[in-house]
Design a protein that fits this description.
single chain, alpha+beta, Sulfate adenylyltransferase, five-stranded mixed sheet, 5 strands
Length: 141
């Protein structure tokens, strides 16, 4: 099963994984170029993946419920809220995402290539749900 790794290992991933596990994060956004650059297909409804925490451990199985590819300017408030990161507006959500996408770590991951993030940048909006919490199964008794 493919791995679902949100952000990079560390505090941000820990917060995102926690929000997924407590049900407050049911959506995510990726740059479309992340899929093309890594040779991965865009997720499809029904696809399952293993959610990985910062320690590299599997913690849950998530299933894609819906996917849309839209220009960055097309992200709506409902999607921003469903990302579960506490942003009070689409503008706040966008600023946080642009900061991440323009970070040194993300630039290194994508091979800078001089890309810019603007209103027309294609993004993948994915909705998902947790179908199995692996923490219970993997804990010693």
């Amino acid at each position: 099963m493919p791995r679902a790794e949100f952000a990079f290992p560390g505090p941000l991933r820990d917060r995102l994984v926690g929000a997924i596990l407590d049900g407050s994060k049911t959506a995510t956004t990726s740059l479309l170029r992340e899929y093309g650059d890594e040779g991965e297909p865009v997720p499809e409804p029904g696809a399952r993946s293993v959610l990985i925490d910062s320690a590299g451990e599997p913690v849950a199985v998530i299933e894609t419920a819906a996917v849309r590819v839209v220009p960055l300017a097309g992200v709506d408030a409902a999607h921003a809220v469903d990302e579960g990161e506490g942003h009070g507006s689409v503008a706040e959500w966008r600023a946080a995402h642009e900061e991440f996408w323009n970070s040194d770590a993300m630039r290194a991951e994508l091979g800078d290539g001089g890309f810019e993030v603007d209103d027309a940048t294609p993004v993948v909006l994915e909705r998902f749900r947790v179908v199995e919490d692996l923490r219970r199964r993997l804990r010693p008794r």
